[in-house]
Amino acid sequence: MIEHAHAYTPALGDATSRRGEFGKTAVWFFRALLLIPFVLMGPEIVSLVLGRPGAAANVSASVADVLGTSTFTIFITMLAVTPVHTITGWRWHVILRRDYGIAMFATAATDLTLAATTTGDTFPGTVLTRVGGHTFLVAGTLSTLLLIPLVATANRSAQQWLGRHWKSVQRLTYVVWGTVLIHLFLLFGLTTIFLYALAVSAPLALMRIPPVRRRWDRARRAGTHRVLRASVAIVLAAVFVSGYAPLVNELAVKGGAAFVQHPARD
Ligand code: HEM
Predict the structure, then answer these.
(1) By the 8 A CB rule, do 71 and 184 touch?
(2) In the structure, which protein residues have their CB atom closer than 6 angstroms to any atom of ligand 1?
(3) Terminal CA-to-CA distance of the chain, rounded, Å?
(4) Residue 105 is assigned to a structural domain of this protein
(5) Residue 92 alpha carbon to ligand 1 centre in Å
(6) Is 265 a member of any domain?
(7) pLDDT tens digit string along 156-196?
(8) Rounded to an integer, what is the distance from CA 197 to the centroid of its chain?
(9) Is 31 left (phi over 0), alpha (psi -120 to 50) or beta?
(10) pLDDT in tens, 206-230
């Protein structure tokens, strides 16, 4: 989607510039959140690099929980950018779509690298067993590898070079959405994390259905159906939060244990 920047017009006065300032601060706040996974995993990774005893076992116990949950949370937040624009008309946050996409790749690539090197206690065998010895591992590895073309083309020169094909490459995001859900279904079945993943995905998928998105956009611009739009937005937000909150809680619990280097071995 091509975003049109609003030119600043003095006639709109201070309200516009205050909103601009708020947007800038909020964008940096959301960018700062992206450091959390690396802060949480930092102590265990440093111990691993320093070759401390038990370090590999700690990383092995934490990696999928902390980096898997982080990668998924970042992914979902990235996928929320466009629906939030459709619903509210805001633009200040649209820049976060690219930042979150790149950060998602960073956490997923770290996840894959650490899984390939440290999880021999859980998945004995070679590096190939550690990244592909089970169908759920194949789905996780494939999701991570599919992010490479997405990140490699998340810049202006790739956009110019690919022209109208750029959008087709970016549609790989939807394939990743599918492979991540398969990864989680194979791991959890119809319980916990997979159900949270469905709850966060449903509203984001609904708002992407072209007729829904078009009608919402038209009503928002025309200022019609206010009560209906507000009610639907509240229901969608509630469904989203019912999945997002337990995911954040999972990250806080598992991430906290990783940070103090006492991960639970499950
Ligand atoms: C886009 C990439 C990926 C995403 C979004 C993702 C997401 C997740 C999530 C949300 C969980 C649940 C964590 C929890 O129980 O707290 C998980 C678990 C897991 N993931 Fe991934 N993952 C990805 C890539 C990978 C890769 C590359 C591997 C290994 C090769 C992997 C292996 C695992 C394993 C073994 C678990 C189970 C952990 C446990 O319950 O102890 N994942 N993943």
Answers:
(1) no
(2) 64-65, 68-69, 71-72, 75, 108, 111-112, 115, 131, 137, 140-141, 143-144, 180, 183-184, 187, 193, 250, 254, 266
(3) 43
(4) yes
(5) 31
(6) no
(7) 999 999 999 999 999 999 999 999 999 999 999 999 999 99
(8) 11
(9) alpha
(10) 999 999 999 999 999 999 999 999 9
Residue 125 structural domain = 22-255
Distance 68 CA to ligand 1 centre (A): 4
Q: State the total domains in the chain.
A: 1
- Give the burial string for 217-251 (b: 16+ CB within 10 Å, else e): eeebeeeeeeeebeebbeebeebbeebbebbeebb
Query: Could you tell me if residue 51 is inside a domain?
Result: yes
> Is residue 6 included in any domain, yes or no?
no
Q: Which residue has the tokens 């590898």?
A: 145
Question: Cβ–Cβ contacts within 10 Å for residue 112, how many?
Answer: 22
Give residue for tokens 């709109």: 12
